[in-house]
Amino acid sequence: MTKHILTVFSILLLLSLVIIFLGQNQIILSFKHYLSETLRPFEVVFSKTSNWLSFWQSALFNMKNIKESNTRLISENLDLYNKSAKLSQLEEENSLLRKKLNLSQRTVNTCLAGVIGRDFQNNRSFLIDKGTNDGLAIGMVVISESETIIGRIADASYNVSKVQTILDTQSRIAAITATSKISGLVRGLGSDAIFDLIVKNKKPEIGELVVSSGTDGIWPRGFIIGKVKEVKSQDNQVFNTADIELLARPQDFDSVFVILNSQ
């Protein structure tokens, strides 16, 4: 056993001496230097390649992160847009409900309805999303949020009604001027309306408001129709007439109020 250990020790000692001797040999040193100089360009190429690969690996990883971040931001933005749209809709509905509350102070019971169809050719009628199921009936008056007369219910089904506007040639409203208290009749001309049957010796002021008088028993009293735009008086006519500018054009709104009952 001791002999075997001595043999191994001797071999190791011999290898150590050979390595030391060769490491100090000038030929071996020159060879090492030559080999190092020869391989140096390859080391540079390998180093640059490694750096290049590391750069693109990092870039691809960052691109993936950026793409995921953009997807997340787009989703968050869409969510915010939806919330903003819902908030805007709620604010509009709240505003309309406040208008309804103001109307209720006049002992007027109303129903809020949305416009779902229009007669774009002449604006004489439109459809709303409320009907007999909501308490609506033919003849009920339709007004805007600013308490301006728009028309009347001409036809009503279960959940849809047709509104005939005051532009229709069959429309007649007993009216009076708000300041000078001149009475007359507002008639639809198809695309416009006039204030007719004005007593010959009376002329309303330009810009004066015309409101419903309630004397016809059909239209409620005190709702705005329009304002005087031009007064026409001819010697061969029994009555004066006036062109009026409607303050609620049928094409300018998306929601209306239907008066269910009034006092």
Which regions are unreliable across 5 or more consecutive residues at pLDDT < 50?
none
Strand content: 25-35%
Q: Describe the sheet with the most strands.
A: 6 strands, antiparallel, barrel
> Mean pLDDT score, rounded?
77
CATH level 3 topology of the largest domain = Thrombin, subunit H
Query: In sequence order, what are the helices and strands, one letter per element?
Result: HHEEEEEEEEEEEE
CATH homology-level superfamily of the largest domain: Rod shape-determining protein MreC, domain 1
Radius of gyration from the alpha-carbon trace, in angstroms: 46 Å
Shape-level CATH architecture of the largest domain:
Beta Barrel
Helix fraction by DSSP (H/I, runs of at least 4): 25-40%
What's the number of helices? 2
Q: Can you offer a commentary on this structure?
A:
It is a single chain. By secondary structure, this protein is α+β, with helices and mostly antiparallel strands. The protein folds into 2 domains: 2-58; 109-263, Rod shape-determining protein MreC, domain 1 (Thrombin, subunit H, Beta Barrel), CATH 2.40.10. The protein has a 6-stranded antiparallel beta barrel. Strands 6-7-8-11-10-9 form a 6-stranded antiparallel barrel. The protein is built from 2 helices and 12 strands. The radius of gyration is 46 Å and the shape is rod-shaped. The longest helix is centred in the N-terminal third of the chain and has 79 residues, at 26-104. The model has no long low-confidence stretch (mean pLDDT 77). Helix content is 39%, strand content 29%. A hairpin with a 5-residue loop joins strand 6 and strand 7.
